[in-house]
Specification:
- With 411 residues, the chain is of the alpha/beta class.
- The protein has 2 domains: 202 residues, Glycogen Phosphorylase B (Rossmann fold, 3-Layer(aba) Sandwich); 182 residues, Glycogen Phosphorylase B (Rossmann fold).
Length: 411
């Protein structure tokens, strides 16, 4: 870790300030509710338990209704499209401005790109005193031409309009600075990184007894001796799915007993897979597509390795969830994943878009069970030390209090 990395100040907040800001009104904003469910549910629970008056905003959906009900946190649905749509974007901006003005929040804090841009604009116009955004990866990295330039400038605008920004990994923070998009003094990382850390009680291999693991394999038609490769995330081109399927075919051609599980949704409207990749997935009985799951840890419990050959990531939260489950991780040496996976210690990092490198990494682990076990053990230890959700969430609360003491009048 280089010396120029700016960490969030974790110095305990003086008691007087904590009491004065214990009723902070905070609005958390994401584009679609699944981001709350998949990334932030435990942090939201923690914020609520710390006495923060929390309200959730995202596009409407049953996931938002269910989450808000289970957490007993109020919410306000505003339709926000993930893709650019001038008409609906202007409507969403208007609704956000009107809502922010009526509620007079102390803090608005956005995550995900579209929500970030609209919340920054609305927060500035509504004169919200503390406006925050967490960058979770740059969608323009794999874009070309005018689209790349425009979306890239949106990231710059988000940084200009907000009071403070965060990156979910140290390498992403440095990338944004090197690209000239964010002033180094205005962006930091909460703790060691990630969106909200890992719930080590939930992502715990000891929860799953051998009989349960065997039953889960049996339910998918996977033999007890097969080496199981797991992917969790969006099943899209920019996640390296084409390369993963190609490499899996190479492993089968080498007569290796292996199965591949995909946990996550296809997104053909955003980033479609090549037709030949889709055909290989559909035609291969050793590839299992289970769709989105609220319990990815169940599949991690039966797998031997997590593979994330992505082209771009902000951090790669699923990598530390898998590490917490004792799985080695094979990923790409890109911004974000270099923070989530310690190459040669908790997993193996390979060049992106390079099937030969990916094949060597996976086949090497298959041939070396002792290395699998060692990497998985070290991964769990690293997550316990750096990415425990309790540590990250406490640091987030401290940051809210620190900012409140700087920007809000005492109560």
């Amino acid at each position: 870790m280089t010396n120029d990395i700016e960490l969030v100040d974790l110095t305990p907040i003086p008691e007087a300030v904590s009491i004065a800001t214990s009723q902070l009104r905070v609005c958390r904003v994401v584009t679609v509710p699944i981001s709350f469910v998949g990334l932030l549910s435990e942090q939201l629970r923690y914020l609520r338990d710390q006495g923060i008056r929390l309200i959730l905003v995202s596009s409407p959906g049953p996931e938002l209704d269910t989450l808000a009900s289970s957490l007993q946190i109020p919410y306000h649905p505003i339709f926000i499209t993930r893709q650019p749509n001038p008409k609906y974007d202007m409507l969403a901006l208007y609704e956000l401005i009107r809502y922010f003005r009526s509620e007079r929040f102390d803090i608005v804090h956005s995550v995900t790109p579209k929500a970030g841009l609209l919340t920054a604009l609305a927060g500035k116009i509504a004169r919200i005193p503390i406006r925050l955004h967490t960058y979770t990866g740059q969608v323009w990295v794999e874009s070309q031409g005018v689209s790349r330039a425009v979306i890239r400038e949106f990231d710059r605008l988000v940084a200009i309009l907000n009071t403070r920004c965060y990156a979910d990994s140290h390498s992403q923070r440095q990338f944004l600075i090197d690209e000239g998009l964010v002033n180094p003094t205005k962006i930091s990382v909460i703790g060691a990184g990630s969106i909200a850390g890992v719930d080590l009680t939930r992502f715990n291999p000891d929860r799953f007894l051998p009989d349960a693991r065997e039953q889960m394999r049996h339910s998918l038609g996977i033999s007890q001796t097969s080496f199981v490769i797991l992917f969790v995330g969006r099943i899209t081109k920019d996640k390296g799915i084409a390369e993963l399927v190609e490499v899996f075919s190479m492993l089968l051609a080498s007569e290796i007993d292996t199965d591949l599980i995909f946990v996550g949704p296809f997104e053909p409207e955003r980033d479609p897979l090549p037709e030949d990749t889709i055909k290989k997935i559909e035609d291969c009985p050793k590839i299992h597509v289970v769709g989105f799951s609220h319990e990815p840890e169940r599949f991690m419990a039966l797998a031997n390795v997590l593979c994330l050959p992505s082209y771009r990531e902000g951090f790669g939260g699923v990598a530390i969830e898998a590490a917490a489950m004792g799985l080695p991780v094979v990923g790409t040496s890109i911004v974000g994943l270099r923070d989530a996976v310690e190459d040669g210690v908790t997993g193996v990092l390979v060049l992106p878009k390079n099937p030969e490198d990916l094949y060597d990494a996976l086949s090497g682990l298959i041939a070396n069970p002792e290395k699998q076990q060692l990497l998985g053990q070290r991964g769990r230890e690293r997550v316990e030390k750096l990415f425990d959700a309790k540590i990250i969430n406490a640091a987030q609360v401290s940051e809210y209090h620190r900012l409140a003491s700087c920007y809000l009048a005492p109560r």
